[in-house]
Write a structure and sequence with these properties.
Elements lengths: L1 H22 L1 H7 L2 E4 L3 E4 L1 H20 L6 H23 L3 H13 L4 H4 L1 H20 L6 H19 L3 H21 L8 H20 L4 H11 L1 H17 L11 H7 L4 H24 L7 H16 L9 H11 L30 H6 L2
Antiparallel strand pairs: 1-2
Helix pairs in contact: 1-3, 1-9, 3-4, 3-9, 3-10, 4-5, 4-10, 5-7, 7-10, 7-12, 8-9, 8-10, 8-14, 10-11, 11-14, 11-15, 12-15
Amino acid sequence: MFVLYGIAAATTALLLTAVLAALLRAPALRLGLVDRRQRQRRVPLSGGAAVVLATCLVAGAGDWTGFAPLGEGVGVLLAAGGGVAALGLVADAWRLKTRFLVVGTAVAAAFVVPYGDTGVVAGVVAVGWVTCVALAFRALDHADGVAGTVGVVTAFGVGACAAAEVMDGLAVLLSVLAAALTGFLMHNWPPARVALGGCGALFAGFLLAAAAVTARAGHDAVTGAGVLLALTAIAAVDALLVLLARRTAGRPLLRRAPDHLAHRLRRLGLTPQGVTVLIGVAAFAGVLVGTLVHLGWLSAQAVLWVAGGVPVVVLGLWRVPVYGRPGEGAVRARARSRRQPVSSVQPPRRSVESPLRAPRRLSSSQVSGPLRVRNG
């Protein structure tokens, strides 16, 4: 019965998210809740609200009917995630400053970290880690399909870890979240018609990070840190890459720029679909390592491959130029003009003097002295 309900809940969440994302698209456009992609395309941020509503409704219905009780801790986690989603929605509508997002997410994380299993010191560190992952996941919504793909893969991995710890309510919540993100991807696959925005990205990142901490609570702290890094390796790569690039270039850390992971991969010549697939494969590799280490099917040393691969990827992609040089825009404009067909390039107009027009008189300063004398 529980398995059948899980399948039914996942299917419902997928279809409900797909329908809500389509229905909320027009209101988001009218209200101006949009994100600009490639400086021209306006993408409404209705996908985040659809993911949040579908996840909360389906998971809440299972808990209310008794088919899949979430449990007290998971219910608090879902409520805290809803609060973070509301904060992200405010940021989407009124461009809330980042420090308010940090404080609000940290307060929500403080209510869901299991201090009894982690201890006070490790619990405080976990609060900071959950906050950073939620904000880093929000930054992943910089390109079509990236945040949704990474979220689906991560949700399956963390859900497997929760199921291994016999946390059935947490596993159901993560399966519903994965299904909701899949329904969102039906509209977000490149070229995207909707985006997550701060509402959906903060909600998904918060649930995934907090669920991973809850599943790993009570295990070895060092191995747990490696497992958590492997589960969220893509978010870590993108955040570290942006911080390193903006710091070395002397740019503001919180100002938007085309310097994220997907932007650099596009600079290397990949298509938008290819970027999404490549990032999804990389996320799957990290999540697979973290899940197998948590299950005990791989040794703890396996996470060192992921931990060592993160700085290698960051340093490698950091060398990809994304900011350009001063005057590069004018140079590209001239290059584009040279590539235009001959028929579209008009020759410069020359002034043709009419034979009926009287010749222009020379001023006195242009006439030499002897000439003035000869002409009287």
